[in-house]
Amino acid sequence: MRRTLFIIVVVFAAFVGGFALHSAMDGPANVRAHQLGHPGPLSVPVVREAFTLLACGKSTTLGLEGCAEHHVVALDRTINQLRRTLWPHLTTRSARADFVAAELAWFRYRRSSCISQSDLYQGGSLSVVTYADCLIAFDRQHIGDLRDTRSLYQQGQ
């Protein structure tokens, strides 16, 4: 029984690891450099998913996961584009460091919250689909937030 449970946990971790645990956002070094008073340059944070995209299909769980992955990557591109359009409006080092820190905090929260939601189906194939659907919801909300922020900066200039 213990061996079976161990195998299920290992397989689940490997399966989820390909999607859920391999997202990356460039920027943590930027934040640390600012916090330590390092004068190095700050750059626009970029979301990059490290998973290999699966084929999209509606008839299997893997296909549903693939569709969700493609959607996540498309939304991430929109987030990255919005960040690039906001960056020139952040004219001080402090404003840029605050933005990078906020985006990193959002990214970490998105990841942790979605892992937590996917725990509902821990050990099942729907766990990864639930995780991806959660990422989509977070990305959509964040796109709206970034658009609102961009509008505020555009009105102020």
Describe this structure in words.
- The protein is mostly helical and 157 residues long.
- It has one domain (2-156).
- It is built from five helices and two strands; from the N terminus they run αβαβααα.
- Strands 1-2 form a two-stranded antiparallel sheet.
- Helix 3 (61-86) packs parallel to helix 5.
- The radius of gyration is 18 Å and the shape is elongated.
- It starts with a helix and ends with a helix.
- Residues 3-22 and 26-36 have low confidence and may be disordered.
Mean pLDDT: 82
Query: Any low-confidence stretches, pLDDT <50, length ≥5?
Result: 3-22, 26-36
Quick one: biggest sheet? 2 strands, antiparallel
Strand portion, in percent?
A: 5-15%
Topology overview:
Blueprint lengths: L1 H16 L5 E4 L1 H8 L10 E4 L11 H26 L6 H26 L7 H31 L1
Antiparallel strand pairs: 1-2
Helix pairs in contact: 2-4, 3-5, 4-5
